[in-house]
């Protein structure tokens, strides 16, 4: 039930994506692949199979289940066919593969219709392969699955060799799963031939092949899910980091926003969703960094006019953050616009710049300065600043 719920959620997400981009052929193929897989799931359950057989006759559930599985693999192939070539070429290849699928399905229907009334009763391990229709049904379906899985493995392996990590890791895992499933189908085809000729297959060997098939499906699911799961984990880490830095920058932001309220950007309306939504968290984080940098630019001429702090010490990250923080508090209380004092400004210079390159180096300097200011209460915070906080 949990697997079916996860599959239903994936289908709903893909249907939404297709609605936004209906001309995306690979996306349509993936969506139809998931839909066919979901349709085959209840037909494999005892309750669903008995209900379909009661309405359409014995063997109908087994036939529909196998048709849905073949369609699942067909649309999996179509995903690669559409992705590997231009739109017209991919469409032509998909049409040729569709003709092959229709012929195989028609042959399966004819086999079931020509056989005894209860020709498909039971599972693969208990079916009577001495009946020609039963052996033909399982052999034909197994060979098509082997072909489709082998083709999907070849394309997945090709993309895995061309892709960087972490995508290559997921693709290689998927390729191993597809190859294992193809091998399991090939082994079962051999079993069908042996049993149709009067031979027997040990139950332990049947169980081993079934276990191989289950493990292969698990590898396939893990491989497909790995890049998505890793991307989600990375996104959560970035969300948490931005939210934490936004909070740590608060002392610096409050001090600068009190002196320069016009540099505070217009905030959006706060709500529970806005406080936790990923896009809102990232927006508030970047806004706070910009506001802090803007405030430092505006206060830098007055800061450098204070005695005891050189331009080099203020500009580079080699200075102690506590020294710059103390000077910042003093100048905002003594001479910057919006405060009382007679400090005369000098030429502006960048403040607290990082000595190393990197996307987060600049923010780290701001955080170090904000940490040095933490614990100090900003003086005379205005009502406008309090309203714009966050």
Task: Write up this protein.
By secondary structure, the chain is mainly α. 74% of the residues lie in helices and 0% in strands. The chain has 15 helices and no strands. α7 (167-196) packs antiparallel against α8 (203-248), α8 (203-248) packs parallel to α11 and α9 crosses α14 (361-373). The longest helix is centred in the middle third of the chain and has 46 residues, at 203-248. The model is unreliable at 338-342 and 376-389 (pLDDT under 50).
Encode the helix/strand succession as letters.
Answer: HHHHHHHHHHHHHHH
Instruction: Look at the structure and give the mean pLDDT.
Output: 76
**How many strands appear in the DSSP assignment?**
0
Q: Summarize the main sheet.
A: none
| Separate helix tally | 15
Quick take:
With 390 residues, this protein is mainly alpha-helical. 74% of the residues lie in helices and 0% in strands.
Could you list some keywords that capture this structure?
single chain; mainly alpha; 74% helix
Task: Tell me the layout of helices and strands.
Layout: H1 2-20, H2 25-44, H3 46-56, H4 60-84, H5 87-114, H6 132-162, H7 167-196, H8 203-248, H9 250-259, H10 272-276, H11 278-304, H12 311-315, H13 321-334, H14 361-373, H15 383-388
């Amino acid at each position: 039930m949990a697997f079916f719920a996860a599959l239903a959620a994936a289908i709903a997400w893909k249907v939404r994506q297709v609605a936004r981009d209906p001309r995306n052929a690979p996306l349509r193929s993936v969506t139809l692949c998931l839909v066919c897989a979901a349709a085959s799931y209840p037909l494999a359950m005892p309750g669903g199979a008995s209900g379909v057989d009661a309405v359409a006759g014995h063997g109908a559930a087994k036939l529909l289940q196998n048709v849905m599985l073949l369609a699942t693999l067909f649309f999996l192939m179509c995903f690669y066919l559409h992705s590997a070539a231009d739109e017209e070429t991919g469409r032509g290849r998909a049409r040729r593969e569709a003709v092959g699928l229709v012929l195989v399905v028609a042959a399966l229907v004819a086999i079931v219709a020509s056989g005894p009334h209860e020709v498909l009763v039971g599972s693969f391990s208990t079916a009577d392969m001495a009946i020609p229709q039963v052996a033909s049904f399982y052999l034909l379906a197994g060979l098509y699955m082997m072909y489709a899985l082998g083709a999907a493995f070849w394309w997945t392996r090709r993309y895995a060799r061309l892709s960087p990590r972490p995508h290559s890791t997921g693709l290689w895992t998927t390729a191993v799963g597809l190859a294992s499933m193809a091998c399991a189908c090939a082994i079962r085809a051999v079993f069908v031939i042996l049993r149709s000729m009067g031979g027997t297959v040990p139950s332990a060997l049947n169980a081993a092949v079934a276990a191989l098939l289950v493990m292969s499906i698990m590898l396939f699911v893990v491989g497909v899910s790995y890049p998505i799961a890793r991307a989600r984990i990375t996104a959560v880490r970035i969300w948490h980091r931005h939210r934490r830095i936004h909070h740590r920058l608060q002392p610096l932001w409050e001090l600068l926003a009190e002196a320069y309220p016009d540099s505070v950007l217009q905030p959006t309306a706060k709500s529970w969703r806005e406080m936790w939504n990923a896009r809102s968290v990232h927006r508030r984080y970047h806004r706070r960094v910009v506001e802090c940098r803007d405030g430092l630019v505006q206060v830098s001429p007055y800061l450098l006019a204070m005695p005891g702090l050189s331009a080099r010490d203020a500009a580079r990250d080699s200075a102690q953050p506590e020294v710059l923080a103390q000077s910042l508090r003093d100048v905002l209380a003594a001479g910057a616009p919006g405060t009382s004092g007679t400090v005369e400004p000098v030429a502006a210079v960048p403040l607290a710049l990082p000595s190393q390159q990197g996307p987060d180096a600049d923010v780290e300097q701001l955080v170090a300065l904000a940490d040095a200011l933490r614990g100090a209460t900003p003086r005379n915070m205005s009502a406008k600043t309090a309203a714009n906080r966050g």
